[in-house]
Write a structure and sequence with these properties.
The chain is of the alpha/beta class. The chain has a domain of 174 residues: Aldolase class I (TIM Barrel, Alpha-Beta Barrel), CATH 3.20.20. Helix content is 43%, strand content 14%. The chain is built from 11 helices and 8 strands. An 8-stranded parallel sheet has the order 7-6-5-4-3-2-1-8. The longest helix has 16 residues.
């Protein structure tokens, strides 16, 4: 059985006051959500604050990025060991915004995925296609290349301790959402691609949907057989919206 996971990606948003209010709201409203795992990924400066606030709660926390290197002269970077030092369980790797704005190609993302696991972090590996790629009919080719880069570097066993997040890039921050059938089709492709190498690992890997999931569409998306939760962007910045998605995911798989 795959435990649903709802992870909030706060992106580059927040102040001390806003973070305190958001975490307080999530903690106050999460009662009854027991089947789903819940996590938040704040910007680096707020990790210590989130760690303090969430100690002793069922809510996990993580980071939005990490360096490919373990330590050294890499000004401005943050290592996996540093994230572990602040109690992180998860780290997002390969988000489309990192790929698009900061030049992270499939090989860089695969290295980040590997270093995260080596330091006992659970990578949330983001994969997905742009609107132009979808319209060109190459969604599966694009996603396969993104998955294969990890398999080529680390082997399919990497997915035994990795979460995958499918994010149709055209549905991030646009208000557009893949239909449940569209999302399910790509989730099934991802599971099938991994199953080509190892069926048991494929059956266990959690695949999240990461394209404008909201309280009003979460239940329908999460009802799909291969959608195991959500990587939530904008809706994770409002406690009520985030809690609505958590409630929709609170169903044993």
């Amino acid at each position: 059985m795959r435990q649903p996971l709802v992870a909030g990606n706060w992106k580059m948003n927040g102040t001390r006051t806003a973070v305190a209010d958001l975490i307080g709201g999530i903690k106050a409203g999460l009662g009854g959500v027991e089947s789903a795992e819940v996590a938040v990924c704040p910007p680096f400066p707020y990790l210590a604050m989130v760690e303090d606030a969430l100690q002793g709660t069922p809510i996990a926390w993580g980071a939005q990025n990490l360096c490919t290197e373990v330590s050294g002269a890499f000004t401005g970077e943050v290592s996996a060991a540093m994230l572990r030092d602040f109690g992180c369980r998860y780290v997002i790797v390969g988000h489309s915004e990192r790929r698009q704005y900061y030049g992270e190609d499939n090989q860089i993302v695969a290295r980040k995925e590997a270093v995260a696991r080596q330091h006992h972090l659970v990578p949330i590996l983001c994969v997905g296609e742009t609107l132009a790629q979808r319209e060109a009919g190459i969604t599966e080719e694009v996603v396969a290349d993104q998955l294969d880069a990890v398999i080529e570097l680390s082997g399919v066993a990497a997915f035994a301790s990795t979460v995958v997040a499918y994010e149709p890039v055209w549905a991030i921050g646009t208000g557009l959402t893949a239909t449940p059938d569209q999302a399910q089709a790509v989730h099934a492709f991802i599971r099938g691609r991994i199953a080509e190498k190892d069926a048991a690992i494929a059956a266990g890997v959690r695949i999240l949907y990461g394209g404008s999931m909201k309280p009003d569409n979460a239940a329908e998306l999460l009802a799909q057989v291969d959608i195991d939760g959500g990587l939530i962007g904008g809706a994770s910045l409002k406690a009520a919206d985030f809690l609505g998605i958590c409630a929709a995911a609170n169903v044993p798989r």
